[in-house]
Amino acid sequence: MTDVQSVRALQGPRCPRKSDIAALNRLFSESFTDRYRRDGLLGVRVPQLNPQIWSYAILDAAEGAMLWFDEKAELIAFNIAHRSGAEGWMGPLAVRSDSQGFGAGKMIVQAAVDWLRRKGASTVGLETMPRTVDNIGFYSRLGFVPQYLTLTMTGDARQRPKNGRLVPLIHLGALLGVATRPDAPTETAVVTRCGAGTVAFAVEEADEVLHQEPNPLPQGYDISWASGVVREGDHVTPIVDVNHLAERLAHVEERS
Q1: Helix/strand/coil for 129
Q2: How wide is the angle at C-alpha 8 spanned by C-alphas 3 and 11, nearest 5°?
Q3: CA 176, CA 248: separation in Å to the nearest integer?
Q4: Where do the structural domains in the chain lie, given as residue ranges?
Q5: Cα(150)–Cα(128) distance, rounded to whole angstroms?
Q6: What was the pLDDT predicted at 82?
Q7: Which pLDDT score is estimated for 148?
Q8: What is the tens place of the pLDDT at every residue in 107-157?
Q9: What is the CATH T-level fold of the domain 3-141, as seen in this structure?
Q10: Which residue from 167, 155, 182, 176 is spatially nearest to 236, judged by alpha carbons?
Q11: What is the enclosing helix (H) or strand (E) of 57?
Q12: Cα separation of 254 and 202, whole Å?
């Protein structure tokens, strides 16, 4: 069977029904687990979601929730497209692993783009992991352009950091016009945009630092955005005063 024939054999799109959620959940779990496996993360198993989450997503997406089936009426692909004003986005979306490489992925993405445009979306986006180079290439060939990284943050629900604190921001001093800034405490950082500037969050050993009691700022340190420091041997790690930081960043946004 040719690629064109394979795509034409798909039935859909149609909106999900309550009876489709179990199959949708299985395809989601299996396809995303396979994606991690192909990225070299062999021990990662993506769990199925609470069915109520799917019910909410389907209700929110309305006609943007699309399913495709094979000749045996088995679920082979899905795409959940959403719109808010002139902005549209899609995801999650997946094609069954044994049906990839025949044009189904391109078809379900294009179907969502067409639906979002008919609904008035002038900008359409989606998310993929930076490590999935083939995904980035696939979406680029469909006209998508890589933009800023999106940060997903997780934490230990059993242990909460002290209120109003963050791990130090490596380049925050330069962003806020402070004359000096401490050396980067780690080589691991998450970079995001803020107004016209770039902010880098240090993330290595963050949990350990956040749960220590900060000491006063050492004499001679020009770190007006910090509420204190944590000492680790000869190394000093500033702790951010979140409330003061928010005010300063608001001024940066206004100036930009």
Answers
A1: coil
A2: 130
A3: 7
A4: 3-141, 165-255
A5: 9
A6: 93
A7: 77
A8: 999 999 999 999 999 999 998 888 888 888 999 999 999 887 776 666 555
A9: Aminopeptidase (3.40.630)
A10: 182
A11: helix 51-61
A12: 25
DSSP string for residues in 177-236: T-S--PPPS-S-EEEEEETTEEEEEE-TTHHHHHTSPPBPPPTT---TTEEEEEEETTEE
Task: Enter the tokens of residue 170.
Answer: 């490596």
DSSP state of 169: B
Whole-structure pTM value:
0.59
Tell me which residue of 153, 149, 168, 152 sits closest to 212, measured CA to CA. 168
Q: What one-letter code names the amino acid at 26?
A: R
Q: Which amino acid is at 79?
A: N
* Selection from 45, 46, 47, 65 nearest residue 55 by Cα: 65
CA–CA gap between residue 163 and residue 60 (Å, rounded): 33
Other CB atoms within 10 Å distance of the CB of residue 49: 15
According to DSSP, the residues that pair with 240 across neighbouring strands are 166, 226
Burial class (CB in 10 A: 0-12, 13-18, 19+), 190: middle
Encoded amino acid at 208, one letter? E
